[in-house]
Amino acid sequence: MKNIPELLAPAGNLNAAITAFEHGADAVYAGLDKFNARERTENFSYEDYGKLMAYAGKHGKKVYLTFNTLIKENELREVLGILHRITRLSPDAVITQDIGVISMLKQYFPHIPVHASTQMGIHNSAGVAMAEKLGIERIILERQVSMEELALIQKNSSIELEVFIHGALCCSLSGACLFSSWMGGHSGNRGKCKQPCRRRYFSPEGNGFFFSTNDLYTLENIPALKRAGIVSLKIEGRLRKSDYVAATVQAYRMILDAEEKDINKLLPEARAILSGGLGRKWSSGFYDKEQYDSVIESQHLGVSGKQCGQVLQIGRGGFMMQTSQPVKLKDKIRIQPKSGLEGPALTITKISKNGKSINYLRARDTGFIHCDKPVSEDGLVYKIGIAIKEYKGLIEQLPILENTISLQVDVQAERLQVKILHHPHMPVWETKTNFPKAENRAVPAELFIKEFKKTGFETLGIKDVAVNLNGDYFALQRDIRKYRQTFETWLQKNYIPVPEPVFSEITPNAPQTKPIHTVAVKNREKLPKGIHYDRLALHENLRRGDELILPVFCPEDALPDLRKRVEQYIFDGLRYVRLTSLYQFDLFSEHPEVTLHTGFPLPVTNHLAGEMLCELGANTIQLWVELEKPMLLSLTERMPGKVEIYRYGCLPILQTRAILPVKGSITDARGAGFTVETGEPLTCLYPEAVFSIPLDDFPPVSTFTDLTHAIPGEKTVSIFNFDREMA
């Protein structure tokens, strides 16, 4: 069939990955135990990744490495070591959020394709264009893009686009959420989100789960996505187990492969399969602008799974449960407090009733579930998984690859050469041949490819084989096999892994410049008296010498108007601009006379990211607001005269296109206050406490004060992560 996009599945472990492939996935995305946006799940060891690459290579499948968190300055050397070890396995791409990691991949591992994570927040064609300039080959778009906008972005872009089609949604714009970090230092941008959006909040009009989203569901949208030319359709769910992966992959594979005229007949069966994934209530997410008020499910716990009972009593070594649905041994359950706080998950290994062990409980039954985890007395029990086929035997038999290589085979009449690609330390292997000119049927390149793909040994696999036939030759397969076997013997004796690159510690040559203090305001006429500033920053109504703050989010259909507005400002004398998103660099690619500064929520947590943004045209780089004091100091010293620190203001800790069921003041269960401010295109959540950090012992550095939602001298303040390590 033509124009069938790749079906990309989540893999929290090796069994889930093989389950995905066995049920029809073309590719999986999987992370290691560090530096990926789902660090709370099981994830992969190097050994399991080696097994995964062995399985994928044998079956013609793809594997993408998720390396999509922000990287701190003191982690760069460790990151280089991890990337070196894992890229020796030649993943089909690395998915990343951090611009510094992109820089590192391009410098040290240029043969590995790079995909932009949805955490980069790319949501229009200008952002796609800037990502392409960074050397990125595929964009995983922001999830808060409508179907109409998606079609326009595809039309106006020249590189591959990938979108999510199923699974959990974040309420906030990707990569811009500070909610979890603000509530305790567990950053969603570091893979450690504690999901405060799933908790209960209180307002004068009532209480509810005001930020808890339904799950994304798009079976009916598959034909439109195929017509739009999207290259990859991605299922969310690395926190989920193999049963979820099996159900979602099978259902979407069915619709993806079907002729469009047959889809309506297949939808009931596909939905039935999909319901076996035990997710939350379905919604169209942000694809349908008319349904943005249905993205949030505020009246129910945002728990994945199907409620199957409740806790009656906590006992020694477990709890008494009353069922509403049957449960059995090996079912996976979560015991969820009614507050919305995260509850423990477990696999049922023992059930007792009247002192006897049993295998299951019927609906409306009572029994004791044995477990060693703390359980809430008011807990509701949700079934989140069921037992399905395990691939333990197959997994045990897989080789543990440590390296994979790609070969270039050059065939001539009297000589056969094999070159190991992307390996500067391995010589070219060569042998004499005697391939006669073909009289009738010439040997095809595919025969060499098939044979040389068999090369390898226990820890070394073959990723790709490219063949260059310099003529029409006659050759028997047994002769090609002999050459391949001779090459393989040589390779076993002589192969050495690519050595780890040396991390450069050269300090950038940054000019010493006078620090600038910028103050952002909504309206200059309302600027409090006595405020010292070198430059005012505003969103509109600028005067000569002011700085224009550009909008974080600009839908594709609004992009032309923004370009016209920017051009008019430049014509009127605009010379200072604050960029809050990667897409905005594209607006000034032909205006070197404009001085560019970056600002929240465009993240910079290491000097490599800062340098790359400077190469794109930025003059000053604002450091990421989640960083702790030592990291801020380190970057200030490493990039003197190039950095700015956000020192005071009320931060939007959540920004969304969803229509929330609340506005104004709210509180959480502990009494912390927040304000929901509705707007277009974004609604924002602001904490009651104003962000304020002391910089008395810092070297001279430019600073940013944000008075758009705060006034000077606020009494309720927070230093955020300044005195604690951002997890």
Polypeptide structure, described:
With 727 residues, the protein is of the alpha/beta class. Helices cover 23% and strands 25% of the residues. The chain folds into 4 domains: 6-169 and 214-278, TIM Barrel (Alpha-Beta Barrel), CATH 3.20.20.70; 306-393, Translation factors (Elongation Factor Tu (Ef-tu), domain 3, Beta Barrel), CATH 2.40.30; 403-494, no CATH class; 517-718. A hairpin with a 2-residue loop joins β8 and β9 (206-208). α1 (14-22) runs parallel beside α9 and α3 (76-87) crosses α4. The two termini are 46 Å apart. The mean pLDDT is 94.
Any key phrases for this structure?
4 domains; 8-stranded parallel barrel; Elongation Factor Tu (Ef-tu), domain 3; 16 helices; alpha/beta; 25% strand
Whole-number mean pLDDT: 94
The top level CATH class name of the largest domain:
Alpha Beta
DSSP strand content: 15-25%
What fold name goes in the CATH topology slot of the largest domain? TIM Barrel
**Regions with pLDDT < 50 over 5+ consecutive residues?**
none
Q: Helical stretch count? A: 16
| Oligomerization | single chain
Alpha-beta classification: alpha/beta
Largest sheet, described in full?
8 strands, parallel, barrel
Measured as a percent range, the helix fraction is 10-25%
Q: Mind telling me the C-alpha Rg?
A: 28 Å
Spatial separation of the terminal alpha carbons: 46 Å
Q: How do the strands of the widest beta sheet line up side by side? A: 1-2-3-4-5-6-7-11
Query: So, CATH architecture of the largest domain?
Result: Alpha-Beta Barrel
Number of strands: 40
Shape assignment: globular
CATH H-tier superfamily of the largest domain: Aldolase class I
Number of structural domains: 4
